[in-house]
Design brief:
It is a single chain. The chain has 219 residues and is an alpha/beta fold. The protein contains nine helices and eight strands. The strands form two sheets. The protein has a five-stranded parallel β-sheet with strand order 2-6-1-7-8, with helices on both faces. The protein is globular, with a radius of gyration of 16 Å. Bound molecules: 2'-deoxycytidine-5'-monophosphate (DC). 2'-deoxycytidine-5'-monophosphate (DC) binds next to helix 2, helix 4 and helix 8.
C-alpha cells in the first residue's frame, strides 16, 4: 500500500512549501490539491461560465483534464487540457474566484476521486483543506498547519511579489479573510483539523524548523 502523508491548513500557513520539501526528502510525490481547484477555476473564467451555476460547472469538470506533474527539483507543473498553466493559476483573478468552484459539492466529489486515484499508485505528501478529513481519512500521518493572520498575509504578499503582481496589502487581507471564511463554512469538505492530525503553529518557525518537526513525526 502506498504511504500517504496529509497536510491541511488555511492559505499562507506554509503548506505548499513544507509539503513540497518533505516529499522531496522522503522521495515521495507531492500533490497540491489547491492547484487542481485553481486549474478548473481558470477554465471556468476563460469559458465565461457562471460561477454560481453548479450544473454547468460540474459538466465542465467532466470535460476537463488536469495533470499535476512532479519535476526533478520537486516542484509541480500543472496542465489544464495539456496547456501548462502553472503560473497562470497563481494570479489574483483565479485566487479571488476559486472559492466559488471549491464550494460546489459535485465538483468536490470529482476532485476527491482524482486525488484518491493519485494515492493508489504513489507514496504521496498531499496538501489541501479536506485531505485528512475527507480525501484520505486513513492516511499514515496527518498534519494541520496554522499561523497568525498577519503572518499569513505577509507570506501571500511575498508570493504575489514573486509573480510580479502588483496587489495592495488591503486586497490580500480582504481576499484571505474571504477565503478563510469560505473554506471554513462550506457545507462539504470544509477546512477543519482532523481529530488525529498533529497541529503545528508555524507563526514563529522557519521553514526548516517546520520541515524538521514534520519529519520527526514521520520517522
Ligand atoms: O491552497 P490554495 O490556496 O492553492 O487553494 C486554492 C483554493 O482551493 C482554496 O481557497 C480552497 C480550495 N481548496 C479546497 O477547497 N480544497 C482543497 N483540498 C484544496 C484547496
Amino acid at each position: 500500500m502506498p504511504k500517504i502523508i496529509t497536510i491541511d491548513g488555511p492559505a499562507g500557513s506554509g503548506k505548499s512549501t513544507i509539503a513540497r520539501e518533505v516529499a522531496k526528502r522522503l522521495g515521495f510525490t507531492y500533490l497540491d490539491t489547491g492547484a487542481m481547484y485553481r486549474a478548473l477555476t481558470l477554465k471556468a473564467i476563460r469559458a465565461n461560465a457562471n460561477l454560481e451555476g453548479s450544473e454547468s460547472l460540474i459538466d465542465l469538470i467532466k470535460k476537463t483534464k488536469i495533470d499535476i506533474i512532479a519535476q526533478k527539483d520537486g516542484s509541480l507543473k500543472v496542465f489544464l487540457d495539456k496547456e501548462d498553466v502553472t503560473v497562470e493559476i497563481r494570479k489574483s483573478l483565479v485566487t479571488q474566484k476559486v472559492s466559488f468552484i471549491a464550494k460546489i459539492p459535485g465538483i468536490r466529489t470529482e476532485m476527491v476521486k482524482l486525488q484518491r486515484q493519485f494515492g493508489k499508485t504513489n507514496d504521496i505528501v498531499v496538501e489541501g483543506r479536506d485531505i485528512g478529513t475527507v480525501v484520505f481519512p486513513n492516511a499514515d500521518r496527518k498534519f494541520y498547519l496554522d499561523a497568525d493572520f498577519n503572518v499569513r498575509v505577509n507570506r501571500r504578499m511575498g508570493d504575489f511579489q514573486t509573480l510580479g503582481q502588483n496587489i495592495s496589502l488591503k486586497e490580500v487581507e480582504d481576499d484571505l479573510k474571504k477565503r478563510d471564511n469560505a473554506d471554513m463554512t462550506r457545507s462539504v469538505g470544509p477546512l477543519k483539523q482532523a481529530k488525529d492530525a498533529i497541529l503545528l503553529d508555524t507563526t514563529n518557525l522557519s521553514i526548516e524548523e517546520v520541515i524538521e518537526k514534520v519529519l520527526s513525526y514521520i520517522k
